[in-house]
């Protein structure tokens, strides 16, 4: 999830029977990898958060009974007052200093590295735990099935894509969080299901379940102080990458290798088409986004209603 001001939201072969991993057909064979990258990313995010809190040093900067830090027994690791940061974390100024995404610094001060560093920062302990639990739930399964290289590429590039879209539309606030990368993994799960459609036994159930999860998470992005543009950008990037990196042989290909009387192509024509279309859209989308960003374009000028995608005003809140 994301906050407009401080938050963004050995291998072995074995038969796979109808399990929770999208209900593979019994006849399909899968390669399982021992996941280590996703746990390493979780540890890295925890280490970065500790470093940020060390730099923040709330007791040194805030004095007085009405400005007391939260959990002062933690010393310099204590949190900012809840009215400043309700997520139990550092100040906005500390996050900005440590690499938060801030449009003016990216464009006018040529600090493009913030498009990457922001995905390793979190607004608070609640924000961090929410994202890391989601990463473990989503990422472990993907890394087991596709390995650390492909999952790592999807995670990083999706986070980068989410940062680009966020910078184009949210230019008056800072943004942090791994949400764009996480939504990229969700997008990759969807495209993996679609492009490998023939190898699944319970296609409809898997598709409906995944679409429901995606819709709920994108819907939460309509709440105030949530950077849904990072979510959308990461999701679209991951969706394209899934069609490119997560393609499997179509159903029946393994059997045709041992049965010479049956000829089966490794990949179907629609998989090739999706691969090419996704590759073109990914390259064009990232290129156009970067060009617009560093030219100082404001995405809201080209799309008058798009601001509602990140915060939809109601009688209960304003944006």
Automatic annotation (TrEMBL):
Q: Specify the enzyme's EC class, one word.
A: hydrolase
EC code(s) of this entry:
3.4.21.105
Family annotation (Pfam families): Rhomboid
Asked whether the keyword Cell membrane is assigned, the reply is no
GO molecular function terms noted in the UniProt entry: serine-type endopeptidase activity
Localisation: Membrane
Q: Which GO terms describe its biological process?
A: proteolysis
Q: Does the keyword Transmembrane helix apply?
A: yes
Q: Which residues form the Peptidase S54 rhomboid domain?
A: 110-246
Major location, coarse class?
membrane
Annotated TM spans = 36-55, 119-140, 152-170, 176-197, 204-223, 229-248, 269-294
Example of a GO cellular component annotation carried by this entry: membrane
Q: Which superkingdom does the taxonomy of this entry point to?
A: Eukaryota
Function of this protein?
Serine protease involved in intramembrane proteolysis.
Family affiliation: Belongs to the peptidase S54 family.
Protein name, UniProt field = RHOMBOID-like protein
Species per Swiss-Prot/TrEMBL record: Brassica oleracea var. oleracea
């Amino acid at each position: 999830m994301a906050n407009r001001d401080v938050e963004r939201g050995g291998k072995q072969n074995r038969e796979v029977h109808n399990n929770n991993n999208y209900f593979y057909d019994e006849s399909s064979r899968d390669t399982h990898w021992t996941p280590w990258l996703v746990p390493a990313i979780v540890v890295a995010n925890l280490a970065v958060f500790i470093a940020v809190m060390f730099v923040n040093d709330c007791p040194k900067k805030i004095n007085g009974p009405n400005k007391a830090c939260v959990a002062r027994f933690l010393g310099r690791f204590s949190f900012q007052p809840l009215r400043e940061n309700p997520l139990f974390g550092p100040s906005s100024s500390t996050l900005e200093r440590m690499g938060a995404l801030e449009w003016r610094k990216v464009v006018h001060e040529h600090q493009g590295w913030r498009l990457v560093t922001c995905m390793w920062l979190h607004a608070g302990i609640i924000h961090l735990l929410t994202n890391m639990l989601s990463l473990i739930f989503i990422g472990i399964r993907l890394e087991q099935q596709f390995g650390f290289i492909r999952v790592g590429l999807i995670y990083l590039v999706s986070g980068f894509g989410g940062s680009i879209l966020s910078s184009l539309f949210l230019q008056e606030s800072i943004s942090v969080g791994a949400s764009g990368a996480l939504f990229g993994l969700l997008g990759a799960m969807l495209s993996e299901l679609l492009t490998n459609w023939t190898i699944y036994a319970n296609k409809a159930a898997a598709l409906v379940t995944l679409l429901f999860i995606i819709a709920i998470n994108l819907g939460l992005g309509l709440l105030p102080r949530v950077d849904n543009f990072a979510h959308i950008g990461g999701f679209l990037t991951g969706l394209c990458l899934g069609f490119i990196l997560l393609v499997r042989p179509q159903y029946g290909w393994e059997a045709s290798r041992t049965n010479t009387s049956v000829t089966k192509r490794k990949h179907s024509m629609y998989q090739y088409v999706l691969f090419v279309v996704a590759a073109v859209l990914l390259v064009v989308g990232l290129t156009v986004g970067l060009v617009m960003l560093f030219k100082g374009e404001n995405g809201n000028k080209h799309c008058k209603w798009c601001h509602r995608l990140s915060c939809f005003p109601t009688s209960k809140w304003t944006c």
